[in-house]
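Narrative of activities, Objective 1.

The group set out to show that a structural description can be obtained from nothing but a protein's sequence at a throughput compatible with the screening campaign. Below is one input-output pair from the validation batch, recorded exactly as produced.
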Amino acid sequence: MRKRGFVAALAVAWTMVAAAALAQGSASPTLDAIRARGQLNCGINTGVAGFALPDSRGVWQGFDVDLCRGLAVAIFNDVNKVRFIPLSSSTRFTALGAGEIDVLFRTSTQTLLRDTTLGLRHVTTYFYDGHGFIVRADANVQRVADMRGATVCLIQGTTNEQVTADYFRSINTPFSPVVFERTDQAAAALAAGRCDSFGTDASQLAGVRSTMPNPAQWTILPERFSKEPYAAYIRRGDDQWHDVVRWFTTSIIEAEELGITRANAEEMRRTSVNANVRRFLGVTPELGQALKLDTAWAFNVVRAIGNYGELYERTMGESTAVALPRGPNRLWNQGGLLYALPMR
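Output recorded for this entry:
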């Protein structure tokens, strides 16, 4: 029995040594570079309300912008240690692959071909959307089938180009595409009457409508023609960086599930007896140790940007100019699709 006990103890010790060696060998070149330069380089949209748009002072605001800020907090515990790099749809993946940015939070749909042919990886879904169309409210258009022969603004390098062409072809309805590099260019063309409609993801259409001189003059048609799940993108070959971005994204969803907010995070960290809450807020250290981040990284993130629901309502919720209902971006136990993987 002593011999069996010794062998078992030796096996446990060997497992611990192997795990430590593996951890030491899993250094992240991306994370190391970020820490060495002292800031995160984050790719965002060139401008769409709700996701990324400069305010009157030139300060970037929006859902994706705050995801960048939150990731900087997870790494540095400093919301300001991030550099925003606006990228068009056609240049975003090239810039990421070339190392100009560390991560892309830019309304980017996860697709099989993007995941397998670009040398990139998408991480965790943080937003569910679908392709739609916006038209003038007085255009007497109730559905896309009424848009026969219409001129449609589209953005180059997006899934929306293909979705639009495929759908119009499927209903045997001709249309004329007008392609632009940036959303603001397409929106300007729409407002000027160069296009009868603009086709892109519905959340971005809501953002475009909110910036029109008279938003009530525009209607987003109710039909949806695709699945557009957004995720952060990173370069392939850096598993530790993938883990950091993945679990950071998961953390804001988990915070909402656990009822942790910017206002109560400190109190819950001090008083909660819930094991999941204590683990999440860094009262016990294992999550930070596993990701090689500060023990209180998730607590710091929630204190800085809030949980998912707070972030959503602040940037594009129904009390904002974008006024976009959460729909599928509600939690799974509230009728939505958002579901945090267990953080344990």
